[in-house]
Amino acid sequence: MADAATTQEPTRRDFLYIATGAVGAVGLAAVAWPFVRQMAPSADVVAAGAPVEFDLTPVPEGQIVKLFWRGKLIFIRHRTQKEIADAQNVQIGSLPDPQPDSARVKDGKAQWLVVYGNCTHLGCVPLGNSGAYGGWFCPCHGSVFDTSGRIRQGPAPTNLPVPPYTFVSDTKILIGGGAAA
Fold first, then answer.
1. φ, ψ for residue 55 (rounded to 5)?
2. Structure pTM?
3. Which of 6, 31, 85, 178 is at a distance of 20 to 30 A from 110, taking alpha carbons?
4. Angle 120-86-52 (CA atoms, 0-180°, nearest 5)?
């Protein structure tokens, strides 16, 4: 007779216990969801774009790395000593948009250039390590930028802009986050 008691059919009471537990769990989740959701960043914060931290360690000298911040292309260029010297030895008065190289990089970090990656003419993406000055060349309309991202030839009216960024260590930068350019 012990076997008959262990193989007993589920009763209506068993079903009610399971159904009540399931409804209670769904109700608890429905009540908890708004509290969990309110911990996420607001839509305006997400739209503004969070700061991006980037490790410079794996970037070899002479290479340009591309990344996105706030939906915009950013170029990070590890400049060689020759590229730095060429950028610093330009007569500022000869530039269409005069700006010294020192105003486009951080003090003591001249080897790192950080600029937006779209041509200031019509927003095309210029090709890196190209053009007469070894910087960028925009094949769409012929704008030529030097190794400091300054316009040298072509229809682009201004230099490639420098986004707000800071060095958080010798090998890491933070793009955005209230950093001053």
1. -90, 120
2. 0.72
3. 178
4. 50
Residue carrying the six token digits 């250039």: 113
Q: Where are the alpha helices (DSSP H) in the chain?
A: 2-6, 12-37, 43-48, 81-88
- Tell me the pLDDT tens digit for each residue of 122-177: 888 999 999 999 999 999 889 999 999 999 999 999 999 999 999 999 999 999 86
113 sits in which H/E element: strand 112-116
165 vs 48: which has the higher pLDDT:
165
In the three-class reduction of DSSP (H, G, I as helix; E, B as strand; rest coil), residue 103 is classed as helix
pLDDT on residue 54: 92
CB 82 within 8 A of CB 119: no
Torsion angle in degrees (nearest 10) through CA of 127, 132, 134, 140: -10
Per the annotation, the verdict on 141 as an active-site residue is: yes
Q: How far apart are CA 62 and CA 81, in angstroms?
A: 9
The strand pairing partners of 66, in sequence order, are 75
8 A C-beta contact, residue 61 and residue 78: yes
Q: Which of 141, 169, 171, 172 is catalytic?
A: 141
